[in-house]
User: Fold these one by one.
Assistant:
Number 1:
Amino acid sequence: MMDHNQSAIRNIGIVAHVDAGKTTTTEHILYESGRIRSLGRVDAGTAQTDWLDIERERGISVRAASTAFQWKGCTVNLIDTPGHVDFSSEVERSLRILDGAILIVSAVEGVQAHTETLWRALEALKIPTLIVINKMDRVGANPTGVLKELNRFLSGGIVPVQRYSGTEEDFRSVLRLWNRRGDGTVARAADDLQEDYDALLERLAEQDEALLDDYVGGMPVSDERLIDSLTELTRQGKVQPLLYSAAGKGIGIPELMDAIVELLPAPAGRAEDPLSGIVFRLERDKAMGKIAMVRLYGGRIVNRDVIRNYTLGTDEKVTQIRKIHAGHQEDVGVLEAGDIAGVCGLSRVRIGDIIGSPDAVSPEHRLTEPLLTVQVSPAQAADYPQLVAALQELTEEDPLLDLQWHPLERELHMKIIGPIQLEVLTHVLQSRFGLSAAFGKPTVIYKETPSAEGYGFVAYTMPKPCWAILKFRIEPGERGSGLSYSSVVKPERLLPGYQNEVARRV
Ligand code: GDP
């Protein structure tokens, strides 16, 4: 068997408001990792003789559902998140499979509505996040102002972990505060960093009690202890390290890659666990047909394995397991717990399907399509037309968002997949359209699962969100209608094996 070291995997995504530099950063990361031989440019019209090659290479890798690169002994899977970040169940779904994220903000434009939306989703999903202020070399770059905005809007624990020299055309470099040696020990990057270390210690002590005790008691805190605390708090999502870059010039990119490997967490789950994974995206390939992008939480898949699609209740044979390393795909033959790859041969697979058993997949991950409806109304009755127009606009951006408007009753219903969507929607309606909306109690829509004897659905209780995935019997005549969650969670109608799950989760 191949050597599999799960602690050396990072599954991360880069998110940003449009134009903040996501594409440029991705390109430079892949370039830096040595996978892309030559560097393309985002700006159109840059004539280069080998442009086609570059375009092809970077077209495949930068926009791939998942592309892997090696850095400092780690395999980093860079997972693409959809461009439409405003209000999308697809975004929610794709963020859920990340173990860590990089949120890029422009040093010129600062925090945008999109940035806040993304941050809310990352925060709600408790995804450890690094924040990068990019375009430090641009005229008008104002990192101090942007940091203030970040502190105000993002309400997180943002901790600067770098020092930078100059801004705009004088922006030359970022200075990391520490280096981690091969043996794991920490060395201060320069001698004159006392101020930065003190500031870091103060921020971390707000979250780390043991550190606070020592700090207040005047005990010396070693550099190593400080950086270990930073790592731990970042991985718990309690603080967000702040970095700087000029991605267009490649400045700050190797330091960002170090931070990904050092500060963001490795995936959980083990090869010995039962096979358990989720399909988060589908790709199509002329030769291979459907390629299911699978995030595996437990177990292992090897070429020619017959694997179970839990959601469909079918078994299919895996023909190939493909990974994209910047620019080229290859059959790697095996997919291990914690890792991500394209699985070929599953002709019936759909996005959101569970592979193997659902054991290691958390209930929230299992959501695939809208299963709840909720009534929406404006805070001011006079705002009805504006609310309808705003929601219609958002529906166009998100194909999964389903809006039903009953003009006579003046009732507006929407299908949603989760509580985060409601939170994000509230926020977007406010910030983009200046509208406040109120939501009624969500109603469960049940969904038929073809192979199983029962029906799966999701229960959602207010005001404290709580989820359950259940199987229950449907009485004749109930088909096609919505059921409110309270009417569904009747123990006698739950199929065997699901009672405990209800007790646990609801
Ligand atoms: P995306 O929409 O977030 O993917 O942003 P892009 O990576 O496409 O960048 C948008 C524009 O900003 C492009 O014209 C880039 O060349 C430019 N850009 C990206 N990063 C930087 C940077 O660090 N400095 C400067 N000056 N321009 C940048």
Number 2:
Amino acid sequence: MQTPLRATSTRSTFSTSPKEGLCGHALISLRSVHPTQFIDITDRVSALVASSGISLGFVNVQALHTTTAIIVNEAEPLLLTDFEATLNKTAPIDATYRHDDRRLRVKNLTPNERTNGHAHCRALLLATSACLNIVDGRLLLGEWQRIFFVELDGARERAASIMVVGE
Ligand code: ZN
């Protein structure tokens, strides 16, 4: 059972360009605690948009990993379990992935290599980033829309890049 846990922040920076108010960038840190987890980062993104001073523009939210994703969807706990079940059916964890075959694999191997072919294949189906509109100085979202950082190979430390551009 998944719960829509909030991100746990250990570090967050935000800076603007010399042309103040035109663009800003922040890195946010997250710590997932489940193998698959939908972490609601809407409030953090909204706060960065508000602090940017931009009234009309875009915010781009980018995951910085190959086994994570960014989605915009509804924060309804049972729906999140449906999402997880859908991912499980599409790329089952117990299926065979060549990425996990240590006899074949020669590239990008690390000493503590994770068995995560399923997570990469799940990430393939989702987006790495989401670009959203800023109107009247606020992040524009529909009534039920929330921004999720999606963990597909947790638990671990993660990061996302937030870029705000506008006027
Ligand atoms: Zn991998």
